[in-house]
Amino acid sequence: MPRNLEVKARINNLSAAEKVALEIGAIFEGEFFQVDTYFNVKNGRLKLREFDSGFAELIFYHRVEDGFERWSDYEVVKLSDSANLKNLLVKAWGIKVIVEKRRKVYIFKNARIHIDNVSGLGNFIEFEVIYSGDEKQSEDLMKFLINKFALKQEDFIKVSYSDLLLQKQNEK
After folding, report:
1. FRET partner for 113 with CA separation of 20 to 30 A, picked from 39, 107, 139, 149?
2. Could you tell me if residue 1 is inside a domain?
3. For the segment 59-73, what is each residue's pLDDT rounded down to a tens digit?
4. How far, in Å, CA of 148 to CA of 137, rounded?
5. Residue 23 domain-assigned (yes or no)
6. 2 located within any domain
């Protein structure tokens, strides 16, 4: 199962984050509108990610949510018939929460930099360093990114967007 090291943090200025990404030599991969439908599963997290292009993928992941830097094990399946699969998954497990976001993706070495505007939550940056067999390399690259983007401890989020939305819904 593939693995990555992740961090997520609140940011105020999306343009400033994009500027830093370009300054360090990250390559712009694209801008996407994504709808992530999370399902009520007992183990890990299962979400159907639908892109505005019509492309979709089913993503399962498991991670311990005990710190701001988190290792995540994941699997991704690209889909050709997401509408029917979504209907089936809704019938089987029900919808836990839906996350909608506009995401700009940059690639730097073996890291994905996501600059996100999440509906109902605000602006975030997320780093996913793909594990290449060397934990120290992943951790060093993560530290480099955190420093270059000048992220502060109080900006880090220890949970997923889905958890933040559920917390917000429960506060109402």
Report:
1. 39
2. no
3. 999 988 778 899 999
4. 16
5. yes
6. no
CATH number for the domain that contains residue 159 = 2.40.320.10
Q: Which of 28, 17, 32, 30 is nearest to 146 (CA)?
A: 17
Amino acid type, 104 = K
For residue 172, pLDDT over 80 is answered with no
In a domain, 17, yes or no: yes
Dist. CA 168–CA 121, nearest whole Å: 9
Q: What angle do CA 55, 25, 52 make, to 5 degrees?
A: 15
d(CA 112, CA 26): 9
Angstrom distance (rounded) from CA 97 to CA 110: 30
The domain total for the chain is 1
| Angle made by CA atoms 118, 14, 115, in degrees to the nearest 5 | 55
Cα of first residue to Cα of last residue in the chain, in angstroms, is 38
CA distance 98 to 94: 11
Q: Give the separation between CA 119 and CA 131, rounded to whole angstroms.
A: 29
pLDDT tens per residue, range 35-92: 999 999 999 999 999 999 889 999 999 988 778 899 999 999 999 889 999 999 999 9
Residue 135: domain span? 7-171
Which of the 8 DSSP states describes residue 55?
Answer: -
